[in-house]
Predict the structure.
Amino acid sequence: MNMPTNPQKPAKKLSLKENYSHLTRGLGWDTSYQPMDKVFPQDKFEGIKIHDWDKWEDPFRLTMDAYWKYQGEKEKKLYAIVDAFQQNNGQFNVTDARYINTLKLFLTGVSPLEYAAHRGFAMAGRNFRGTSARIAAQMQAIDELRHAQTQAHTISHYNKFFNGLHDYTHMHDRVWYLSVPKSYFEDAMSAGPFEFVTAISFSFEYVLTNLLFMPFMSGAAYNGDMATVTFGFSAQSDESRHMTLGLEVVKFILEQDPGNVPIVQKWLDKWFWRGYRLLALVSMMMDYMLPKRVMSWAEAWEMYFEQNGGALFNDLTRYGIRMPKYHEVASMEKHRLSHETWATFYNYTHAAAFHTWVPEESEMKWLSEKYPTTFDKLYRPRFEHWREQQAKGERFYNGTLPMLCQLCQIPMFFTEPDDPTKICYRETTYRDEKFHFCSDGCKDIFDNEPEKYIHSWLPVHQIYQGNCFRPGTDPTAPGFDPLAEVLQYYGFHVGEDGGEYLGSPDAKNWKAWTGKPAVSE
Amino acid sequence: MSVVALKPGYSGDMKDRVENFHGKQLLYIGWEDHLMYCAPLCIPIEGSTPFGALTTAVIPSLYPAHPDTGRINWDEVEWFRSGERFTPDPAQSLAANGLGHKASLRFRTPGLTGIKGSCT
């Protein structure tokens, strides 16, 4: 360390560049009591070869003191606005109470991923032997923790007025549809550090995040939810840092050794497909759950993946990287994805912590315009039939649990790429056991690493094995109702959190408290 | 390589092996051209169940709300096991019909294609 030699003269303050250089280079050292391979045991088994960690360039060169200052300022602004929102009863300014269901989906499905990302980046920050990579991962770990926290603080206000928001961490670890985002992240976290950052920093944050964050935040803005817009803004500058880091990570790995290219390509194929499957939830949010719509899922996919993503992968061809496998399947599915997904939640909303409903006539008209080749032919008859049944007091619910994809854990509702009327079935046999998949994309991932996925925790199978009841439950007792018991285990308030929106306590309260109709005109 | 793992020879536990289902097996059932019930269904069932019980009791009870359910002519139904056409023997058990644990059974009902022919 450069201690001042003259006690009379104070040490010169380091420039930002020097400060960053000390943080990411000067403070690192090679261990001598123990071999480096023992200190960093996890950064070689994936087969990635790094020859020179100093080639890592953090595009932001953020130092700790600057980091705390920026984040502190953002926090102050966010909490001031959230406070004002609460005092002004801002929750009643949203379009109608259907909108709140997007927040339920976000809080139970996405916010826990922020926390999981915090854990994942903390582990990556421990496991890279390059100092600057460690620092970048640690800073992102802190960002992610902040996001989880600000989201919980913002949305907790809605919990005072609406159902289904009361125990999101408990739900995330148990509920059938939440096993989709949960397993996605745990797959990444249980891989090595290089696969983790490729999966999360690049495939998720860089390639797909615009399709997750943008629809939720723009949807909030369109529907008068200023609290959510504010945490979106507060996270936005972090997100752009994460995206830039994601691109840097992948370029760094690719430039270090030609042997890294096929490994990274396989990860890009896998994590594109896993991320895309996760986005099915976003597609239905955009096309069905927002009372005021921002754009259709198909339009979002065209803009953010086909155009922007296409340009990105063109740029990566010089490293020997091609477009992720099955991207063309995702494009073929864009005119049906949201309809199939929403119909599935309509089937099983009695076992969900949010409401579903049949779109209004004006909304069906919008869907027909946005999806001229599919909506009227394939999906409108379904919704009209359900609307008729509902009018007769026979609201349709599916009483039997669905078959799940072994890999993405989503019910097998996806249809053949070339035929939207046929369910897409794929299967394989491994160690004399059959496994089923919703797509070639999911089957390929399994076939590459079957030992990893044969012990997936599939909610439907777990229920049938008797593992989703509260302790002390006796499934042999007379009159035992397995579904009711599973919902208790999930922590749901039956009859309040899920089921049909029309006539729900949320819809009734909305009318009583605001004087506005449960479905805005 | 069946998994990229820190420890060589890592092996996963087979989470859904048949022994875990309390004497039953899983059977997946899908109705072709009928997507109102959005996905194939998963049921636990004894492997000794005669195939005929599926058509007389089990399958109709799974699709009570579909207007086509009561119109099925079981003599004309086409059956698929893991996607391949086959002719089941209704007197024989599921196991004897080749429908073991986690088997996928699909059926097509000629002439019935869902609400307004939309495959709903």
